[in-house]
Design a protein that fits this description.
This protein has two domains: 1-54; 59-190, Ctag/Cox11 (Pfam 04442) (Sandwich). Strands 3-1-9-5-7 form a five-stranded mixed sheet, with no helix packed on it. The chain has a four-stranded antiparallel sheet with strand order 2-4-8-6, with no helix packed on it. It is flat and about 80 Å long. The longest helix has 53 residues, at 2-54. Mean pLDDT is 84; it is low at 61-67. It has one helix spanning 2-54; strands at residues 78-86, 92-96, 100-103, 109-117, 123-132, 140-145, 151-153, 158-167, 177-186. With 193 residues, the protein is α+β, with helices and mostly antiparallel strands. It is built from one helix and nine strands.
Length: 193
């Protein structure tokens, strides 16, 4: 009979031990889930900081550049190319009115982009810029840009949108061509009415 009692005692001792193990595993899993959730929120700001520091991904400054009186370097020219595309699913025509211009570093230029909502629905668009080569993004300064604001267009409406910019004279000498690319996204569902 003693053997039967010993077996029962061992089983009763193992049960709380298993419950404790399960509790530890559950606690670890909950911490991992919260850690992953927190990392997901921190990822975008960390990515922005990384891009700002390294100049990668051609991210340009989101706010208007303050243009102070700079000297124009007339001994040098830089070709600025403009590319536009629409994200999948947005029925707009979107293109630069000039594909390429030549500028002197420090010289302010103004160009226009054309957009037309080819659907019958009202759509709000948002253009996201990128500059290549990525290193040049820090030297491409937008003073005024349609990309700073949302672009609501009624069905079949068309518009010309302006961009005023300059290329900083500190642009490295080995860069003679910049490409400014815009991708237009449909943000209609994300806009507060």
């Amino acid at each position: 009979m003693n053997k039967g009692n010993n077996v029962q005692n061992n089983e009763t001792q193992e049960q709380p031990s298993n419950a404790q193990k399960n509790k530890k595993v559950l606690s670890k899993l909950v911490l991992i889930v919260f850690g992953m959730f927190g990392f997901g929120f921190a990822l975008v700001p960390l990515y922005d900081v990384f891009c700002d520091i390294t100049g990668l991904n051609g991210k340009t400054n989101e706010s208007a550049a303050s243009y102070s009186a700079r000297s124009v370097d007339e001994t040098r020219t830089v070709n600025v190319q403009f590319i536009s595309r629409t994200a999948q699913g947005i029925p707009w025509k979107f293109e630069p009115m000039e594909r390429e211009i030549t500028v002197h570093p420090g010289e302010t230029k103004f160009v226009k982009f054309y957009a037309k909502n080819e659907s019958t629905q009202d759509i709000v668009g948002q253009a996201v810029p990128s500059v290549s080569p990525g290193l040049a993004a820090a030297y491409f300064q937008k003073i005024e840009c349609f990309c700073f604001n949302q672009q609501p267009l009624k069905g079949k409406e068309e518009v010309e949108m302006g961009l005023q910019f300059y290329v900083d004279p500190e642009l490295p000498e080995d860069i003679s061509t910049l490409t400014l690319s815009y991708t237009l996204y449909d943000i209609t569902g994300k806009v507060d009415s």
